[in-house]
Amino acid sequence: MDELRDLVTAELGETVDPRVEAMALAIAAKHGEASRAVLFYGSCLREQQLDGLMLDFYLIVSDYRAAYPKRWMATANRLIPPNVFPFEHDGLMAKYAVLSEADFDRLNGPKTRNVSVWARFAQPSRLVWSSDAAARDRAIGAVAKAVPTLLGAAGRQDREDVLDWWRRAFALTYSAELRAERKGRSQSVVDADPERYRRFGQAAAPLIGSNAGGWDRRRFEGKALSVIRLAKASATYAGGADYIAWKINRHAGTKIVLTDWQQRHPLLTAISLLPRLLKSGAIR
Q1: What is the count of structural domains for the chain?
Q2: What pLDDT is stored for residue 282 in this prediction?
Q3: Comparing 176 with 164, which gets the higher pLDDT?
Q4: Domain of 277?
Q5: Which residues contact 148 (CB under 8 A, 6 or more apart)?
Q6: How far apart are CA 24 and CA 101, in angstroms?
Q7: Higher-scoring residue by pLDDT: 99, 86
Q8: Confidence (pTM)
Q9: Are residues 13 and 91 in the same domain?
Q10: Residues 270, 46, 18, CA angle at the centre, nearest 5°?
């Protein structure tokens, strides 16, 4: 575990654009003393030009009740994590997801079948801000669980190259969520930095037990949970319908333009678009 944790620590500590750091600080400040860490992740990590993009963050908090002035928001975050919010700072747009330290640790590990957190943090991310050394160490420890969880859930086939193992693992996780991604996404993620994935895979391999399988159940539960989260977002995410359309257009190459009615009714919009998007292959 020491080798993998060292790799994770070094990667999380890499520098980011100063505007990304400023946005992370602003997100943490919004939730006050409950804020413990802010992580930056996603495709924007590889981008030099951030204007016009949607940056992705995770805010890790001590507990949900301390993070919100309204009790129902804390309850929603606890029952169906995470809550997701839009954010704007210094001309840049972002969204951030909120998880407690306990949930972030749990959802990066093998005790959950849901792929949404460990599939993302098995990929590169940056620990942009932490409240203190203890919060930093807890965030690093949680992220270090993600790679062995992902690869362990996929299981390694006989004589399988470590990069092919990664590609197959990501393909499985994409199948367990409603995804607006072009075909071949699982391969392009690995091919963007194959040496990184080879190092992390080799360091994680000795730590992996026999938790492979169960993907039919993961797919059923994951897609159902995606719909439930979409329903929750209609109440918690301002501008949710516009974001959904932007996300699908960006990743699937579609040209969805929402009407005024659709913008005012994000849940009904998502439900009405879903059959057409599934049939066309824009989401899977």
Answers
A1: 2
A2: 46
A3: 164
A4: 239-284
A5: 4, 110, 204, 207, 208
A6: 17
A7: 99
A8: 0.83
A9: yes
A10: 100
